[in-house]
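Re: that backbone. Tokens:
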């Protein structure tokens, strides 16, 4: 009976020791993961100054700056036609490596009427109010005393796309005035309708 109790006692003690070891190993491993690792770094080799670097800074985000791959999205409101169009552009060389504060100062200095809506290193969104027509419009006007059709470019400038072989001087005075001022239309169909009235 003494022998059975000794075997039971030894087995129980070994089992308890094994459980304690496993528990201690797991708890110690968890604490090691939760506690930031300290890394020995040499700060000044000449003076042999040694310091510790905390690994909490390993996941530091990169600074939000404009790079060559940053997309600039302009939301353009055209005052003359009340249209809003979005335009995508690449950043100019002069603003590469600007952070948000630098870019705001740049806009205040160079484009005070523009409004920065969003800033990140991936995409910048800027709202602009432009006092011109958007590129979706045509204008029927006069060039070299003939009826001409123009389209607005991105800068709001008229670009000649077609000349009609019809002299403006053969038209009524009121129609001549309209053409000299320019008749703005939204589509090629509207151009056809208006030209039909002038040519017939």
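Recovered sequence:
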């Amino acid at each position: 009976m003494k022998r059975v109790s000794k075997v039971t006692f030894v087995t129980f003690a070994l089992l308890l020791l094994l459980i304690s070891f496993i528990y201690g190993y797991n708890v110690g491993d968890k604490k090691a993961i939760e506690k930031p690792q300290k890394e020995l770094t040499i700060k000044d080799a000449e003076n042999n100054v040694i310091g510790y670097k905390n690994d909490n800074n390993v996941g530091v985000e990169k600074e939000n700056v404009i790079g060559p791959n940053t997309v600039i999205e302009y939301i353009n409101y055209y005052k003359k036609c009340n249209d809003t169009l979005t335009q995508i552009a690449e950043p100019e060389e002069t603003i590469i490596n600007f952070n948000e504060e630098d870019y705001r100062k740049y806009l205040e200095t160079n484009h005070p009427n523009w409004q920065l809506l969003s800033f990140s290193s991936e995409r910048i969104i800027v709202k602009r109010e432009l006092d011109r027509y958007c590129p979706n419009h045509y204008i029927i006007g006069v060039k070299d005393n003939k009826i001409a059709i123009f389209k607005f470019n991105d800068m709001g400038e008229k670009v000649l796309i077609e000349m009609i072989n019809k002299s403006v001087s053969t038209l009524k005075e009121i129609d001549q005035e309209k053409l000299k001022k320019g008749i703005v239309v939204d589509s090629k169909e509207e151009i056809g309708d208006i030209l039909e009235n002038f040519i017939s």
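The beta strands are 38-44, 49-54, 71-78, 83-89, 115-119, 123-130, 138-143, 146-152, 158-167, 183-185. Residues 35-60 have pLDDT under 50 and may be disordered.
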